[in-house]
Amino acid sequence: MVKIAIPSNGPGGLEDIVASRFARAAKFTIVEVDEKGNVVSVSIHENPVQAASGAGVKVAQWLLNLGVKAVAAVSIGPNARVVLEELGIKVVTVPANIRVGEALSKAVNEVLKY
After folding, report:
1. Which DSSP state fits 59?
2. How far apart are CA 56 and CA 23, in angstroms?
3. CATH code where residue 51 lies
């Protein structure tokens, strides 16, 4: 099982639009997929550190604590990217203005490829 986190500014969920900014997104949709890429669970979490200084690093640690193994985002700041990679969380870049479900598909393809 792999947990993938995707930031959004709306209500969250697979139909929401991916946020343009990673660490300052209002919510994160966290999707757990099995080894074949099938969705096992979907949960929506408020971003607890969106207004804080150094938010990217704090969000990375928070996601690690939630068991996240990959993030799919439009843009991630350089400090957050380094920390995510150091924590073993894969970063998948996705295009702007797509739905969380579309970003999930791209992330699953990258995370589960052999």
Report:
1. H
2. 5
3. 3.30.420.130
For the stretch 72-98, pLDDT in tens is: 999 998 989 999 999 999 999 999 999
Please give the residue range of the domain that contains residue 82.
Answer: 2-112
Mention every residue, 6+ apart, whose C-beta is less than 8 A from residue 75.
Answer: 20, 21, 22, 93
Q: Provide the pLDDT confidence category of residue 9 given band limits of 50, 70 and 90.
A: confident
How many domains in the chain? 1
**For the residues 36-47, what does the mean pLDDT come to?**
95
User: Distance (Å, rounded) from C-alpha 112 to C-alpha 33?
Assistant: 10
Count of alpha carbons within 13 angstroms of residue 69, beta-carbon side: 13
Kindly give the residue spans of alpha helices, DSSP state H, lying in the chain: 55-65, 78-86, 100-112
